[in-house]
Design a protein that fits this description.
Length: 86
């Protein structure tokens, strides 16, 4: 990851002649960093095990309402630091 970050810092954004493309690329970098930081701060947020083990209920992987990112974000923003699923 550090080498990739260094490469991104030294490489001009693709589409420098296309502002929309450059903006989308920059936004994807910011999103990637934000998701990594969320993972660092909330590991493990319990998504794998609740409401059922992900290995036993793989259909949960397709849920757009209860994603690991949304669950960890809810845990991070909960007043006590622990959000319940419900």
């Amino acid at each position: 990851m550090p080498f990739f970050a260094l490469w991104l810092a030294l490489t001009p954004l693709p589409g420098h002649k296309r502002p929309l493309l450059a903006t989308l690329f920059a936004a994807s970098i910011v999103w990637s960093i934000a998701v990594q930081e969320l993972g660092v701060r909330t590991y493990t947020c319990g998504w794998n095990d609740s409401p059922g083990n992900i290995d036993l209920t793989p259909e949960r992987l397709w849920s757009l309402r209860d994603t690991e990112i949304s669950r960890c974000l809810a845990r991070l923003t909960a007043p006590s630091g622990r959000a319940t699923h419900g």
